[in-house]
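Raw record, unedited: Type-4 uracil-DNA glycosylase
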Amino acid sequence: MHIQLDDPVDLDAFRGHARQLLAAGVSPDRVAWCGDRAGEGAGDLFGASDGAAPPAAAVAGARHAVPASFIALCGDVILHRDPQRFALLYRLLWRLAHEPALRHDPLDADMMQAQLMAKAVHRDIHKMRAFVRFTRVMGDDGLERHVAWFEPDHHIVEANAPFFARRFAQMRWAILTPERCVEWDGQALAFGEGADRREKPPPDAGEALWLTYYEHIFNPARLKVAMMRREMPRRYWHNLPEAALIQPLTDAAEARSQSMIDAPPTPARRIRAPIALHVRPADGVAPADLAELRAAAHACRDCPIGALATQAVCGEGPLAAQHMLVGEQPGDQEDLAGRPFVGPAGQLLDRAMAQLGWARDTVYLANAVKHFKYELRGKRRIHKTAAQREADACAHWLDSEISLVKPQGLVALGATAARALLGRPVAVQAERGAWLHERRDGRPVFVTLHPSALLRLADNERAEAYARWLDDLERARRFEVGPAAVAG
């Protein structure tokens, strides 16, 4: 009996034919199966039909129960390229129906063969996900698409397509293979006939960037050639752009490893030991000068930050400065140096002030929070925003600093500083660029962004934001004593 499947990966069609044959008592040796892709089953020994499958009505009353695991196994095995997979699955179905003990036999040859075929399919699905490389092309409609060429070992395109639709849902893409192609337009998947390898798009700029990245992350000291070839078999190399780099990098690995061994050691970046605590002044006694303020702030343990930081970082600059610029808290470099605004944000502030002709030594630079709050990631200390309770614990140190320095105007860099100076939550974007007269001591407060906010912006947004921030700083710089000047 000759069974022709229109789609060689249609599990439902195979199950329908298999149920009818099993119910009619047609043994596996009387059935030949074939599909229609790439001539599957053509020239088969059983290619000539010696009968037809019985009508469904003739077998409607017959039912056979099989384990649920066998249905899942069929779903995997049917994706295998072996043209005899249908015969194997029907033979297993027949035997499960007539040999109940088969389901408990882990060493049965047919069952082991099916499981090996399922494993091969799963491996091929994994390799497709790992080794598909998209190239950006412009379509005839003027829209951008990403196209990839892949040569799977088995019939996995339909089974794997939903993964790529979820993974790359926001872009239009197509994966071309010799037997089956799939395209995603952002809404639905569409399948088509196979393509020719000559339809593979040429390299784009992204490929050159990927090769540069791959070359720079190659670590010769951790090279394991046998494992690499097991995980990235050579049959995939001709479709991988980075494969051209593998042999040269492998050949040079030993020499590069030796050069790394011979190189002088890099000085370790060590976090300084915490500075010893000084005797803290009695509660309620204000520091007499900035030196006493620094010692007292360093000994402060009103919140947990102080115990973890290297030292307290108070401000620096001239007394009676016209402006006091107040940031959020010291960062990693400020904590180690004991000075405010010496890290990346401080360097950006220095650059802006230099453009405005505003000398750093004419202003007093400080922070609302005096200790560095961070979390460890390996050996790196990553900045964490101080909680409101922690900022409140530092508020009296900032008030003491203002009383000692006696600035004429206060510039709040960021929301934490603005809240500390004004005593209320501040929407920086809404209130920036203006002098606010809300403090009891009469000192006006000017609100703008903290320079670290600019460093976190995307490259295409940074230039415009920086120009607007410069305008804010220039408006703050022009501040002069007197209500008329402030009102203007």
